[in-house]
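Following up on my earlier thread - several people asked me to post the actual chain instead of describing it. Fair enough. Here it is, all 332 residues.
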Amino acid sequence: MSRPRIVPEAPDRTPDKPGPGPVPQAVLRSLDLAVMKRIESLLPGEHMTPQVGQGTELAGIRPYFPGDDVRHIDWNVTARMNEPHVRVHVGERALTSWLVLDVSASMAFGTADRRKADVAEGVGLAVGHVTTRRGNRLGVVAFGGHAPRVIRPRQGRLGLLGLLAELRRGGEEENAGRASLGTVLKTTAALGRQRGMIVIVSDFRGELDWEGPLKALRARHGVLACEVRDPREQELVPAGDLWLVDPETGRQLQIDTRKRRVRERFRAAAAQEREEIAAALRRAGADHVVLSTDGDWLKTLAGHLRRGEAALRAGNSTRAAVAARLQALSAS
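Reply from S.P.:
Thanks for posting it. Predicted structure:
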């Protein structure tokens, strides 16, 4: 008797919560094709470990000891040596990836085609489809205003179901505050001891306390930082008096957007903040892509990964490392 399948309830789509939009299979396949071939020196190649155990590559043959699996007896060698011998294989393990997902209240903002949370959901689904194939595993760390929620790495369909459950759980309530991304990355490093792939999806709002932990994380893993932006966070339009509210703290500010000086100061401050974020990501060695709520975010993501092959030829090891890890996950 087969066990019933438990599938998370599909989220309600409304004009306020439109979702990530279409995620065609053809474009998902392009994520596989966009990245260059696997670079064995940047990852344990075929995911082999130095230990012996279950695997397909022969490590050696040795005499049988009580307790060995009789299925591993090499009968040809046993016949020649007149003594039972067993085949020992190089152990293999699945590649483990982690999705670090921002579900804070600021991700619910969006003034263009969709909210930042909708883009994050789409990135999570695309990453999940690639990183749970062929026995590879995906774990999720979701952070907002409270303690991070952790879904331990799981393979295949179970990994996708865990991701879907987290995506459909929704974000944090307003005025819930914001968790420290630096602390979240330290938690991720403690969980992800095996070398693999880390994908961070966030608007990177808040304190810049994460550069050091990210640099430490990057020393062991490939890191792709997906920064999600909305056009109105970068530039104001002349719409009269506005009350601006920080959804995470509840702080309010009234401004007159008809004043050109106000709009110019806002634009300059926003640009400086984003440049500081980009510079910190560069110093930490993370691959950085900016996705917008305006337009086709999936095309932008696929194009960024496709340029990884050119980056490899140019000697850019950061993007090459990320692309290699995604290719290792999706290669047949």
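The longest strand covers residues 48-63. That should answer part of your original question.
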